[in-house]
Amino acid sequence: MAKGDKFYFDNFVAGTKLSKKAAEYLVTCLENYKPEKIEQMMLSMHEIEHQADVKKHEMGAALAKAFVTPVDREDLDMLSHRLDDVTDMIEEVLQMFYINNVMTVEPAAIEFAKNIVKACDLLCDLMEEFENFKRSKTIQGKIIAINDIEEECDKLYLRSMRALSQTSTDVLVTVSWRNIYECLEACADACEHASECVGSVIMKNT
Q: Which of 37, 154, 52 has the alpha carbon at shortest distance from 97?
């Protein structure tokens, strides 16, 4: 691997570590939820999301002036955006709590957030291995494992939405939690899309 190529892979690793940091912070927020502190929570989360944006912009700037890249320029740009989407979606979960003025946290939301941490952890492992994609024997297994977590989140989403319909008697509460569960499900989808993007990039470049 050319010396300059390492920048791209290191950038992806740094971006996914920020996604994991955001997911872990989301769990902390939900486990210790205080509605009067939601604005401070959002500010702290936004700082993590801003750092992830910086990584995306650094990638864009490097690609704009690069003559040769380790894989197709368009693929690197697409993967950078997919990874950034993960952190964006995690931030949006807290924004949903703020917009809907949520007072208490449903246990299913914490379970969801912990699954997202697991997916982000695997995404970190995946991106650590990505620079060795031409000879790696573990990348495909990590992609499958992220897909498995997304499927678990699908099941949790269905159970949570059904329970909401069965137990909630307040229309506003029902709508609020539908929005939140949909947002949490989108986080899991974003992790899966990022991992599938890695698989597509590898297929095209080997």
A: 37
Alpha helices in the chain (DSSP H): 6-31, 38-65, 73-99, 107-130, 139-167, 171-204
pLDDT band at 52 (very low <50, low <70, confident <90, very high): very high
Question: What distance in Å separates the CA atoms of residue 28 and residue 177, rounded to the nearest whole number?
Answer: 19
How many Å apart are CA 162 and CA 68, to the nearest integer? 51
Overall size of the chain counted in residues: 206
Instruction: Work out the end-to-end distance of the chain between its first and last CA atoms, rounded to an integer number of angstroms.
Output: 14
Instruction: Indicate the pTM of the whole model.
Output: 0.94
Q: What is the mean pLDDT of the chain?
A: 95
Nearest-angstrom CA–CA distance, 44 and 37: 11
pLDDT for res 206: 78
